[in-house]
Specification:
Blueprint (H helix, E strand, L loop, with lengths): L1 H32 L12 E9 L5 H18 L5 E6 L7 E9 L2 H9 L1 H9 L1 H4 L2 E10 L3
Antiparallel strand pairs: 1-3, 1-4, 2-3
Helix pairs in contact: 2-4
């Protein structure tokens, strides 16, 4: 009788443990399959393009690192789709070496970003780089809606 009682108790324990494991697995699976919500993209309606002569012969990687820091600051400010892109101009196009594109949601966001302390700190850290670059042209564009 005691042996039967132990068998029944063991079977119930195994059954209970199995049910608990299945419940935990199903909760884990349902949690993992939930889609993460992506942040809303802000359309950039303001763009700037700058052309620079390089009087020093900078390694483009140095400029790219400076823009990467600045773009990280812009992300922290709350504008992950805004920022700068660096281009090297092909050698057959005179003595202008770099083109820099800036992308901004609008003038208000541009002002917020450029007046923010994070942006100012990020650009000040590499301010000595800009001394070797001469701005040749600067254009601003507003998207037609």
């Amino acid at each position: 009788m005691l042996s039967n009682l132990k068998n029944i108790l063991m079977k119930k324990t195994i059954l209970f443990s199995s049910i608990m494991i299945l419940i935990m697995i199903s909760i884990s699976c349902s949690t993992q399959t939930q889609e993460t919500e992506e942040p809303a993209k802000i359309e950039n309606t303001l763009q700037s393009v700058s052309y620079f002569k390089d009087t020093v012969g900078y390694d483009p990687q140095l400029l790219l690192e400076a823009f990467t820091k600045t773009n990280a600051a812009i992300d922290e400010i709350g504008y992950p789709d805004a920022g700068y892109k660096l281009w090297i101009i092909q050698a057959d196009t005179a003595d202008i070496r770099f083109m820099v594109e800036g992308f901004w949601p609008d003038q208000e966001a541009y002002d917020i970003i450029h007046n923010h302390q994070l942006y100012q700190d990020a650009t000040a850290a590499d301010s000595n780089i800009w001394e070797g670059l001469v701005s040749v042209k600067y254009h601003r564009f507003v998207k037609v809606k």
